[in-house]
Amino acid sequence: GEQAFSVSGWIYRVSGFYIVAKHETGGSGGSNKEFDLFRRGDDKLQFTIYDKSAGVSLGVKSSRSLTNNEWVHFAITYTGRGKADGTSALNIYVDGVGGSSSVASSMSYEGMENLNANLTIGGSSELSSANFWRGSMAEIQVWNKALTDDQVSTLYRMSLQGIKDEKTVQT
Questions:
Q1: Alpha-carbon span 118 to 79, nearest angstrom
Q2: Model pTM score
Q3: CA triplet 42, 138, 162: central angle to 5 degrees?
Q4: Rounded Cα distance, 31 and 40, in Å
């Protein structure tokens, strides 16, 4: 079966799109992708998982838009239950708060395949450098489990100490 996972960290964007991706080199479209997180044209984050065999995907976008030149904490979680739960198996958090809506859903989704692709932070191995993240990243962390809402909120609050000089948080 599929493996649950989570990724989190701080991002500061000047330009660019891909934050983290697991794509095979030399692929095109969605054919050689496992998952990715990128900033959409409407300034929201999108988290997508791919089923290579069926040629379909499941994806969600954040409810909050991002602003350039501002530190933002993100987290994505996947329960490993995409076939059973559809897009509810995916979640995006911005500054410790979850909330997302479906952007890609397929009833024929069977599962994310292990393509042995490398995890790329700040870009995608299959796309040009024009799509790479331009800005800064800090405290990028990867887990082999789906973090809970409380765990993501705690991560956000705890990691503020290291970023507090560059980020103002209102409580």
A1: 20
A2: 0.85
A3: 120
A4: 20
Taking the chain (171 residues) in consecutive chunks of 10 residues, what is each chunk's mean pLDDT?
Answer: 89 86 65 86 92 88 89 94 88 91 82 80 72 86 95 87 50 35
Cα 51 from Cα 38, distance rounded (Å): 18
For 123, list phi and psi in degrees, rounded to 5. Answer: 180, -170
Where does the chain have alpha helices with state H? 82-85, 149-163
Contact 23, 116 (CB under 8 A): no
Token pair in block for residue 161: 């100490």
Handedness of CA 156, 161, 162, 164 (dihedral sign): positive
Closest CA to 157 of 73, 78, 65: 73
Cα separation, 110 vs 49, in Å, equals 11
b/e burial code for range 14-33 (CB count within 10 A of at least 16 → b): eebbbbbbbbbeebeebebb
